[in-house]
Specification:
With about 70 residues, this protein is mainly α. The chain is about 30% helix and about 0% strand. The longest helix has 20 residues. The radius of gyration is 13 Å and the shape is globular. It starts with about 45 loop residues before the first helix and ends with a helix.
Amino acid sequence: MKPTVEDAGQVGAEVHLLEHDGSTLYGASLRVAFVARLRDERRFPTLDALKAQIADDAERAQALLAG
């Protein structure tokens, strides 16, 4: 629901591509598979706090996917 950024009441999924080369993917179809839940949804006090949490989440995801 993105409680830190907006409270529009819309459910969605935000996907971060780890180790992506940066090429544009606009208009592309992607298949996403859920492997594990990293954390529960919560509101962060600032965008910087959210960004720091996303960085931690990315590190945890890489470790989890590495096996």
